[in-house]
Design a protein that fits this description.
The strands form three sheets. A seven-stranded mixed sheet has the order 1-9-8-5-4-2-3, sandwiched between helices. Strands 10-12-14-13 form a four-stranded antiparallel sheet, with helices on one face. Helices cover 38% and strands 14% of the residues. It folds into two domains: 17-261, 3-Layer(aba) Sandwich (Aspartate Aminotransferase, domain 2), CATH 3.40.640; 263-395, Aspartate Aminotransferase, domain 1 (Alpha-Beta Complex), CATH 3.90.1150.10. The protein is of the alpha/beta class.
């Protein structure tokens, strides 16, 4: 008899009790706006920024309304102008090229490897086409960051890291988001901390931090930030930097602070689940595991595998059969966007040329969330179901 998985791929764990109590305190006093404070009071948002900067080993941090807003703010802070080309991954989610388009710039897509990371050879060939790379660590896969930074530094290309899927991950012990000029993180429900929506931006550059803070809508209240540059830095840019309001509020900051304190423990729990599923899928006929390099410390909040060179019809059959048994697989190879999945030629506001090598990989990428509400037994069952259905279609 075929076993059926009955869990939910979109159900997150409850917000921790200490985060709920912190949120209730904010609701009780009613001062949700980050700059609405009593004399001598520190806002939850300012303290969150200070704590996250320390946690990441960064000099400056800014809390904003979403990860996508953080990306667009980073582009504005490094002076990307309308019409400028910006390099970015062909394999990413729509908010990444969307942030580039939002400032009037033009995405220049870079290919993807079977490791699901940016193709560094393709990047090297395109470095002369732009002065900024928005590097998406898509689905938590880190490329060789040493080689990437050496290439970009030599070419004078500024790197903005999209770390929506790599909060808590590292390359050779260096936390994701600390190699580029700016690191951007998401606090959306399906990311590693959950405030529904929200974003965080870190940098060591006082000028970039000041610009980002003014852009976010600080007015002239920047001295109320605890993880910001000295006021003298703001004096140089405060009249020439527009207000593009996108502040985080105290309610979301209160919810996030306890979650960030537990991040390392949560990463360990995600990886236990990821490893169980990966073990169960290994040596499945027709299925290619995405191997993780030893230099990468990852966060297994989702898992990907490849059905390379399968026809769309056979992939659709796998998805259908797994769904009938309660397992939700997402496919990045579809001709039309579906849910959160899309690919570079879906974004018709951006010009693109076919990339045959990358198209082959994109056509085979299967994706699955791994929420912490899954038990290890759940993960083993999910792997058995996927293994059985992939094998059945492969051998048919």
């Amino acid at each position: 008899m075929n076993e059926i998985f009955t869990g939910s791929f979109t159900q997150q764990e409850p917000i921790p009790e200490d985060a709920i109590e912190a949120a209730l305190n904010v609701l009780r006093h009613g001062r949700l706006h980050r700059y609405n404070v009593l004399p001598g009071e520190l806002s939850e948002t300012a303290v969150l920024e200070q704590e996250f900067a320390a946690q990441m080993g960064a000099k400056y941090c800014l809390a904003v309304s979403s990860g996508g807003y953080a990306l667009a703010t980073a582009l504005r802070a490094v002076d990307v102008k309308p019409g400028d080309p910006v390099l970015t991954n062909a394999f990413t989610l729509a908010p990444v090229p969307g942030s580039i388009a939002s400032v009037g710039a033009k995405p220049v897509f870079v290919g993807v490897t079977e490791a699901l990371t940016i193709d560094l050879d393709d990047l090297e060939a395109k470095l002369d086409q732009a002065k900024v790379l928005m590097l998406s660590h898509m689905r938590g896969h880190l490329c060789d960051m040493d080689r990437l930074m050496q290439m970009c530094d030599a070419a004078g290309v500024i790197v903005i890291e999209d770390c929506a899927h790599t909060m808590g991950a590292a390359w050779r012990g260096q936390l994701s988001g600390r190699q580029g000029a700016i690191g951007c993180y998401s606090c959306q429900t399906y990311k590693h901390v959950n405030s529904g929506e929200g974003g965080l931006l870190i940098t060591d550059s006082p000028e970039l931090a000041a610009k980002a803070t003014m852009l976010s809508g600080s007015y002239m209240l920047y001295e109320r930030h605890l993880a910001a540059p000295d006021p003298e830095v703001f004096e140089q840019i405060k009249y020439t930097t527009p207000n593009v309001s996108g502040r985080m509020d105290n309610l979301r900051a209160a919810i996030l602070r306890p979650q960030l304190r537990d991040l390392d423990q949560q990463v360990q729990r995600w990886n236990e689940r990821y490893d169980e599923i990966e073990r169960g899928l290994r040596e499945t006929p027709g299925l290619t595991i995405v191997e993780r390099p030893d230099d990468e410390s990852y966060v297994g909040s989702s898992i990907q595998f490849l059905l390379l060179d399968w026809t769309p019809e056979r992939i659709a059959e796998v998805i259908k059969r797994c769904a009938a048994r309660g397992v939700e697989l997402k496919w990045f190879g579809g001709a039309e966007p579906s849910g959160f999945t899309s690919r570079y030629d879906s974004w018709r506001y951006a010009d693109s040329a076919p990339m045959p090598a990358s198209d082959r990989i994109l056509a085979g990428i299967m994706d699955m969330r791994v929420p912490l509400t899954f038990s290890l037994d759940d993960c083993r069952q999910i792997a058995r179901i996927v293994r059985a259905e992939v094998s059945a279609v492969y051998q048919s």
